[in-house]
Every structure is written in C-alpha cells, then in structure tokens.
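chain below, 230 aa
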Amino acid sequence: MAERSYKIKDGIVLEWADTVISYLKEDIQLFTDFDAKLDQRFITLLESKVTQAYKEGGDQLNIAQLQEKTESVDRAMNDCHAYFKKLRYWVLDAFPDQKAIQKQFGVGRYAIIRRSQIKMIQYTEGLTTTINQHRDALIATGIPAQLLEQPAVLSEALRSANNEQEQKKGTRTVDTDQRKELFNELYRILQKINAAADNVFDQHPAKRKLYRTPRVTSSTRSITTNDEEE
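prediction:
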C-alpha cells in the first residue's frame, strides 16, 4: 500500500499548489533562467496535476458508495433474519421434540449464524436441501408454500450484496493508493519549486518566503513542517 511522503493535509497541499502556481506565472522567467526545465510547460504540468487532484475528491465518494453497499448487505441480512423467525415457528411445530432436526434448520445455533455474512450465506444455501429432506412433515403443519421456496432467493440476494460490498472495499483500496501516489507526485513537484526558489530568490527573503512549504499547526491535527535545507 502506498504511503504519503509528507505530513501535511491534502487540502493544504492543494492550497499551496494553487498559490505557488499564481506566483510562478509571474516569476517563471527567473526560474527558467535558473533551470531551463522550469518553463511554461512545467506550469502546465503542475496545473494538470492540481486539477486531477481536485477531481479525485478525497475519499468521501468511496465512503458513500461503500456505505450504500453495506446498507444493501444489512437489508439482505435482515430479510434472512425475518425469514428464520417465520421458519422457526413451523419447524418447532413439525419437530417439537427432535433437537437434531431442529438444529439442521438453525434452531439453537442461529445466534452464531447471524453474526457473519458468510455463515448466513452458508446457512441459506443449505436450507433448500434441508427443507426438501423434511418437506412432507413441514407441509403437514400448514406452512405457507412460499416459505419453502424462499431460501434460494434470500441466498442469492445476500451473496450478490456481499460480493458487491467486497468488490467496493477492494476498489477503494486501489483508489486510495492511486490518490496517495498522485499527491506524492504533486508534493515532489512543489518541493522542486521550493528548492529552486531557494536559489532564485537567495537575495530576496520576502519573495523566497512565498514558495516555502506551508507551516501547519497542531490545531489542524497535522505536524508542522519545515524545509529540509535552508
């Protein structure tokens, strides 16, 4: 997993970049005279990186999308829970003194099943077979016919929701790494400008100060940073 190469907030980096670009446009010839690579094309590159970083929008979109997937899983789990409560009634009616058969239907072990999406999927997947094994006894109790066919539907819905949630967790990790790499690259570019400014404005402290790495106080929950070399 990618790690940030700096200790200030992403928002501060973006603000710093915007400010540097505005100053750099006025001073670009001085920078070009010092280093020919720091020309108008360099400004264009920096602007494109900043625009891309803004478009990334932080992690909020990923969080919202993951929350949506999680809510779908919760709904599917709740549907399974509601189904079990109904099924349990008819299982106890059909097999009042047969603990082994009750256990096949989840009675007595359901508290463990409902704690895990995977266990719930395994449970609902196996219910169709269990129901078919004891179908006649269940039908004799008067159980609604739709309850006998529902496990397959519930299992498919939960598997689908769970798979989408896991996929989103994976893509969020990838997106986070890509965003860190983008910001690391942007930070390296800004530090290059900062280092060049140390030479370009070595006789002009006020101008030199405009390009320095931002100082962030602890009140922003970030660490104060300084130039590595003065």
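Residues 219-230 have pLDDT under 50 and may be disordered. The chain is about 75% helix and 0% strand.
thats it, cya
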